[in-house]
Design brief:
The protein is α/β, with parallel strands linked by helices. The chain has 14 helices and 11 strands. The protein has helices at about 1-20, 35-40, 50-60, 85-95, 105-125, 140-155, 160-165, 180-190, 210-220, 240-250, 305-315, 345-375, 400-415, 440-460; strands at about 130-135, 175, 200, 225-230, 255-260, 285, 300-305, 385, 395, 420-425, 425-435. The protein has a 7-stranded mixed beta sheet, sandwiched between helices. It has a 4-stranded antiparallel beta sheet with strand order 8-9-11-10. Helix 1 packs parallel to helix 3 (about 50-60) and helix 4 (about 85-95) packs antiparallel against helix 12.
């Protein structure tokens, strides 16, 4: 035990050194792939190596290939940072090594997840009494929620999909917006539903055309699922959730909300209006490793219909020690996994450390940084901001695709900040996502300055 304590102490020092370096280290590493493979690779060792040696050499050899994603100047892919309490809870989670599949395997893991799920539903303005499954991220949250939807809409037409499968079943009509996220289509593939049957046009911000959605639903028959989004991944724009709920209700369709990051707008009084009507949906999916800033990987799926959710996901086996249905909660009845990491501990720690006001402040601060980005970027000659900055996303470009890509590459290579490129309405663009609790005004200033320098350099070539 003394040796283990020494190992954990030295590992803590290595972790602290990395986190303290974030402000000064290049955000994206200039790494040589072959060198990284050589340092970390080689033949499988024939015999054991001391744990402290393994950890020290891993930290040393991996360091050149680490991205400063926990830092305040990483603005790519809607990746959040890591709150201190959530990071510490994640270390405890690994040390406790609980299997959060059954209440019997970890009573604490089951109850903390139960509490965190109810807190999240309340914080996000969702109805009480929902079913939920804590999963790896929004991709699997979509799979979980849409599995419940698949069961529900087919059961309403007399088909037991869990018993009979999809062969011979009524065709499920899936209606989506033109700017939906790719994880929706991927979830549909996983579930055997194929490509969406109807794609509804979107406006210049990526919002689904609410009137066209109603017209599209008039034209479909049979079991139907409608997928809308709270927070388009490029612009941050929100579909009209009230109108979508009206249309889905009128046509007896299941309404699913992709709220990977945008659902968190409900946590702040200043942005809550964006999700008006969200509580009327049948299912919701979001991430915690985005705006809640817990470590990877963590997401959650909610559904209004617990009986459909459990029918789609639940399972029993003779050797398992199942909880009584009226007593504790067995997590495997609500998500696609058996054995799983006890992700609820980090979510619980993040929510307790922030409280309701702290989550609101996190959302408001990052949105304020996004607005400031928009204002400052527009001062750079040739820079055009393309979106209405309603949340934490900033979409912009320079006069030509070539200039846009060149400016982005120069900023990325500078190491001062990192964000990704995208294609928007047929042209190249750059997207900034402000999702990290630790981002400061100085981080914004440094990033804008990097863009101004890059733009001047490209203009003189």
């Amino acid at each position: 035990m003394s040796e283990l304590r020494d190992l954990l102490a030295s590992t803590s020092q290595l972790a602290g050194d990395f986190l303290e370096s974030l402000d000064e280290r290049p955000v994206a590493p200039d790494v040589d792939l072959d060198a990284l493979r050589q340092a970390l690779g080689g033949p499988l060792p024939d015999g054991p190596t001391a744990a402290e040696t393994v950890v020290a050499e891993l930290a040393h050899d991996a360091e050149p290939g680490l991205v400063a994603t926990p830092g305040g100047r990483y603005f790519g892919f809607v990746i959040g940072g890591v709150l201190p309490a959530a990071l510490a809870a994640d270390w405890l989670t690994a040390a406790w090594d609980q299997n959060a599949g059954l209440y019997a395997a970890s009573p604490a893991g089951a109850v903390v997840e139960e509490v965190a799920g109810s807190w999240l539903a309340e914080l996000l303005g969702l109805p009480s009494g929902l079913a939920f499954g804590v999963v790896t991220g929004c991709q699997m949250a979509h799979v979980t929620a849409l599995a419940a939807a698949r069961h529900h809409v087919l059961a309403a037409h007399g088909w037991d999909v869990e018993l009979k499968g999809l062969v011979g079943s009524p065709r499920i009509q899936v209606v989506v917006g033109a700017q939906r996220h790719a994880t929706i289509d991927r979830a549909l593939r996983f579930l055997g539903l194929g490509a969406p049957s109807t794609i509804v046009p979107a406006d210049d911000q990526g919002r689904i055309d609410a009137r066209a959605l109603d017209v599209a639903l008039d034209a479909v028959e049979g079991p139907t699922i409608v997928c809308v989004q709270a927070g388009e991944v490029n612009t941050g724009a929100f579909d009209d959730l009230e109108a979508a709920a009206d249309a889905a209700s009128k046509h007896d369709a299941w309404l699913h909300v992709d709220g990977a990051f945008g659902l968190w707008a409900a946590a702040s009084p200043t942005t809550r209006r964006l999700v008006a009507g969200v509580e009327r949906a049948d299912s919701w999916a979001t991430d915690m490793h985005k705006w809640l800033n817990v470590p990877y990987d963590s997401g959650i799926a909610f559904s209004r219909h617990p009986e459909s959710h459990r029918a789609a996901l639940g399972t029993h086996a003779a050797y398992l020690v199942h909880a009584d249905e009226t007593g504790p909660r067995d997590e495997l009845d609500w998500n696609p996994e058996f054995s799983r990491r006890a992700r609820g501990f980090t979510v619980y720690a993040a929510l307790r450390s922030l409280g309701r006001s702290g989550v609101a402040e996190l959302v408001e601060n990052t949105c304020a940084h996004a607005r400031r980005f928009g204002e400052e970027l527009e001062r750079i000659p040739g820079c055009e901001v393309l979106n209405e900055i309603v949340l934490n996303q900033v979409l912009f470009r320079f006069p030509s695709d070539e200039e846009t890509d060149a400016v982005l590459a120069a900023v990325q290579q500078s190491g001062e900040a990192w964000m990704g490129g995208t294609l928007w309405q047929g042209r190249r663009a750059i997207r900034i996502s402000v999702s990290n609790w630790s981002t400061t005004d100085d981080d914004v200033d440094r990033t804008v300055a990097a863009f101004a320098t890059a733009a001047r350099g490209v203009a003189t070539v």
